[in-house]
Amino acid sequence: MKIILLTGASGFIGRHTIPFLIDRGYEIHAVYYSHPPEFIQNKDLILHRCNLLDFEEQEKLLSEIKPTHLLHFAWYTVHREYWTSFENIKWVQASLNLFLNFAKNGGRRAVVAGTCAEYDWNYGFFSEGITPTNPKTLYGICKDSLHKILSHFCKQVNISLAWGRIFFVYGPYENPQRLIPYVITSLLEDKPAFCSHGNQIRDFLYVEDAASAFVSLLESDVQGPINIASGQPISLKTVIYKIADFLGKRYLINLGAVSTSDDDVPFLVADIRRLKNEVRWEPKFTIDEGLNISIEWWKNKIRESKIKIKD
């Protein structure tokens, strides 16, 4: 029996991995801390409330579960704050301790969520093992440093390690302050959406695809860094206008109303050849399909919140 510890199980991507893990036959031990997640009921899904920053709690949990596999998403993710927060350092410490406990209890295969912020963004197009890492934020530095330490540690203790560098994921449960949900919710409420010029090129991936990619990576024997992305460049204004056109509200879009910062680089796109050729994975959802699902999800979310207010 494959026993997996899933951290960050109530988070944006983590929650979406659960159906894929169930389909692959794992006994899933899903860790949450702040809020109990609303998950499907399944005999192979066991929920644990645990503060992974508390090393005693963490050690007790892993000694009880003795996971063979680890899928590690948990991190500090408060919108915008996470780029510079000292909480990043705490999560490096907690992640290192997690791997010490994982190794001590017989762990064999681990996949960790990294970030495209580890790369040198001056390059624009990012290939694992070719494009240098040169992070400019504390968040990126902590992720990159953790990857380097764990790479050496896992070789010494014979743990198979893969590191998924996440690009621009969107979809249900995304932070409402991020671009796509902000535009969707603004237009659904007939409010103007104030955006930058929108000429920036990015690499967007629907969240269910991101979850599927992580589970496929976990199931493979591929090691090292792997870009988790679509590999398809698209401008922000194209995405914004797609949302507006789906809702018939292009008149509410205000491009150029928000200034861009000096570090808002023009081009950020992933090379996903390793993901395709070695992991044997490709995205299922087109950008149009992902946006339409996201719009319907936010419609329901807004409808539910209005019902609660009335009640």
Question: Could you walk me through the main structural features you see in this protein, from its secondary elements to its overall organization?
Answer:
- The protein has 311 residues and is α/β, with parallel strands linked by helices.
- It folds into 2 domains: 2-169 and 205-228, Rossmann fold (3-Layer(aba) Sandwich); 171-203 and 232-262 and 285-310, Alpha-Beta Complex (UDP-galactose 4-epimerase, domain 1).
- The chain contains 9 helices and 14 strands.
- It has a 7-stranded parallel sheet, with helices on both faces.
- Strand 4, helix 3 (87-104) and strand 5 form a beta-alpha-beta unit.
- Helix 3 (87-104) packs parallel to helix 4, helix 5 (179-188) packs across helix 9 (287-310) and helix 7 packs across helix 9 (287-310).
- 40% of the residues are buried.
- The mean pLDDT is 95.
How would you concisely characterize the structure shown here?
This protein has 311 residues and is an alpha/beta fold. The protein folds into two domains: 2-169 and 205-228, NAD(P)-binding Rossmann-like Domain (Rossmann fold), CATH 3.40.50.720; 171-203 and 232-262 and 285-310, UDP-galactose 4-epimerase, domain 1. It is built from nine helices and 14 strands.
